[in-house]
Amino acid sequence: MGELFDLTGKVAIITGSSRGIGRAIAERLAEHGARVTISSRKAAACQEVADTINAKYPGRAIVVPANISAKADLQNLVDETTAKFGKVDIVVCNAAANPYYGPLSGISDDQFRKVLDSNIISQHWLIQMALPQMIERKDGAVIIISSIGGIRGSDVIGAYNISKAADFMLAKNLAQEVGKHNIRVNCIAPGLVKTEFARALWDSPDAEASSISQNPMQRLGMPDDIAGGAVFLASRAGSWVNGHGLVIDGGTVS
After folding, report:
1. Cα distance between residue 192 and residue 236, in whole Å
2. Reading across the β-sheet that carries 183-190, which strands appear in turn?
3. How far apart, in whole angstroms, are the C-alpha atoms of residue 254 and residue 118?
4. Which of the residues 57, 100, 101, 160 is marked catalytic?
5. DSSP strands (E only) in 24-131
6. Is 101 a catalytic residue?
7. All domains of the chain, ordered by start, with CATH?
8. Among 5, 167, 175, 247, which is disulfide-ready with 243 (CB 3.0 to 4.6 Å)?
9. Partners of residue 188 on adjacent β-strands
10. pLDDT in tens, 109-158
């Protein structure tokens, strides 16, 4: 492992890391030396991921379940990670919600609020909880998993796309505020990745074929395609990348 990508001694929280993109990021951060906190609502699913990581790299993973919509859960996530690992260097805001597929004219107020609360407000909460210790140490990296949906429209996931566009601006504004403390805040914007979360967009031959036809690489993304970007942004290799949205989509929006 080259020095630029070495995360030895770093501690990372990854929300939504019991499966999909979050799990791939947690596994790759651990592979590069970081100690990681696996978190989602379901403790058993988190424990399976932590056990897999610890079997390869003993002591590098712990479990702290959290519902991102519960502010107290997020505070406990930061507090428990700090208590067990001594600090938090890296925050990856990956968990998200999308309870509605269809035109914006049909979304209920409760569904719209859930999307905005989960995909914007909860990210803000978690980042604000971790920032004070990063500021004190003059070092830190925050990665928000946005989406290429944040830079284009959709007739079926409009509310989700609105929330992901806001994530880009959350990163840009925080980068302006905390860059002077040697803290980088960036987004990763995946294209369509073959995960359970995005199943509604690819779980039929016609839907998958349509998505693939729009991609220059003629395939959907896989969770590990996104993980390398997170390693880059979390490590010294990304030490002068701040307020940026890294698009990883096989060229779909090029």
Report:
1. 28
2. 61-63, 35-39, 11-15, 90-93, 140-145, 183-190, 245-248
3. 28
4. 160
5. 35-39, 61-63, 90-93
6. no
7. 3-247 (3.40.50.720)
8. 175
9. 145, 246
10. 999 999 999 999 999 999 999 999 999 999 999 999 999 999 999 998 99
